[in-house]
Amino acid sequence: MASNVNPTVRRRRLGMELRKLREDKGMTAEQVAERLLVSQSKISRLENGRRSISQRDVRDLCDVYEVEDRRLVDSLMQMAKDSRQQGWWHAFGDIPYSVYIGLETDAASLRTYEPLVIPGLLQTPEYAQALVRGAWPETAPADVDKRVQVRMHRQKRLSETDNNNPELGPLRLWAVIDEAALRRHVGDAQLMIRQLEYLIEQSEQPHVTVQVMPFAMGAHPGVNGQYAILEFPDASDSTVVYIEGVTSDLYLEKANDVQKYSVMYEHLRAQALNVDQTRQFISGIIDHYAGKEQ
């Protein structure tokens, strides 16, 4: 299993090519579904990369779209074959948010807002373990360990030496974190001190920016909840807004949706404490946990 194979991104690229062929043919997804005797949702999921696509699917769609260029058909068939290979995360078994991991693995930049917890890419193993145990109390210990291992593996995207995609360089991360995430006790005080010290340490990397949104700011554009914006180095890969859910996640790719969330994030960055203020603020909370606060 090659470490640089990313089936999620390859499925998205293939889906975009198939959507373009359908639109060039002037057909709706419903019309294609009727021709192939499948559901419209299947066609939609194939086009947005949310479903595994077989070479037979590609062949049938190319027949419907009357694609005569054999080289194009062969290229799309090869993309379908490549998209069914496994990414590194499959070695850990069934991961609920595997689609997101695939996107994050190939992203060039990630902007995230976290209202309740420290972002996964900036968590210590001890914090991650305590968080998973608290958030999913019925999870078996082995599954808790698996989730933590996956989270730690994801953090390699922030490293130049352990990057799963060396041609990309480290992931450019910009995280706005609500004060609530810093003050929420996950584990004991010593665990929180180590976590917040690690957060400051990571924020000193040139490609990592951390800002805190203090309680004193009051209502702000992030009160509606957590979200992340992923951008990719290839211009053909559309920006994705990711919203995490309990039983299912939401991925937004329409230009209008992405624009709204991007503008909202700019307001968040403008209203949050700047980088230096953030480090001082986190240091003050560390003192609080250490019992040094007057």
From TrEMBL:
Span of domain HTH cro/C1-type: 18-72
Pfam families named among the record's database cross-references: DUF5753 (PF19054), HTH_31 (PF13560)
SUPFAM superfamilies assigned: lambda repressor-like DNA-binding domains
PROSITE patterns listed in its UniProt record: HTH_CROC1 (PS50943)
Family matches, as InterPro entries: Cro/C1-type_HTH (IPR001387), DUF5753 (IPR043917), Lambda_DNA-bd_dom_sf (IPR010982)
Protein name per Swiss-Prot or TrEMBL: Helix-turn-helix domain-containing protein
